[in-house]
Design a protein that fits this description.
This protein is of the alpha/beta class. The chain has a single domain, classed as Transcription Regulator spoIIAA (2-Layer Sandwich), CATH 3.30.750.24. The protein is 36% helix and 31% strand. Strands 1-2-3-4-5 form a five-stranded mixed sheet. Strand 2, helix 1 and strand 3 form a beta-alpha-beta unit. Helix 1 packs parallel to helix 2. The longest helix is centred in the middle third of the chain and has 14 residues.
Length: 121
């Protein structure tokens, strides 16, 4: 019998609005399998053009190159008009950001509150 466990995995744990900011809470493993769902959620939020888009990675256990590509695509969609911020990456996620060099190109913060309070625009 096939493993159905992934059929119930939803990487978008919720979307929260605080003032002009939108926080997208991601959970579990972000990989080739569920990247389309993450992409859809992030691009939908990008279309709203919030002042700040914070991607909360605090509950993410694993991220692969496909998911990192989705983050880059979302950042590109916002361009320089709005802030795109990553928050609360765990050790493995932070390591993936470092290895890929994305930590040098994306604004990464220890917490969601720190991302919201940052002066990055």
């Amino acid at each position: 019998m096939a493993d159905d466990s992934k059929l119930n995995d939803h990487p978008v744990g919720g979307i929260e609005r605080r003032g002009g900011a939108v926080i997208v809470h991601l959970v579990g493993e972000l990989d080739l399998y569920n990247a389309p769902e993450v992409r859809s959620a992030l691009l939908e939020v990008c279309a709203e053009a919030p002042e700040r888009l914070v991607v909360d990675l605090g509950e993410v256990d694993f991220v692969d190159s496909t998911a990192l590509g989705v983050l880059i695509e979302a950042r590109t969609k916002l361009a320089n008009r709005r802030a795109f911020l990553l928050a609360s990456p765990g050790l493995e996620t932070h390591r993936a950001l470092q290895i890929s060099g994305l930590d040098q190109h994306l604004s990464v913060h220890e917490t969601v509150d720190a991302a919201l309070a940052s002066s990055v625009s």
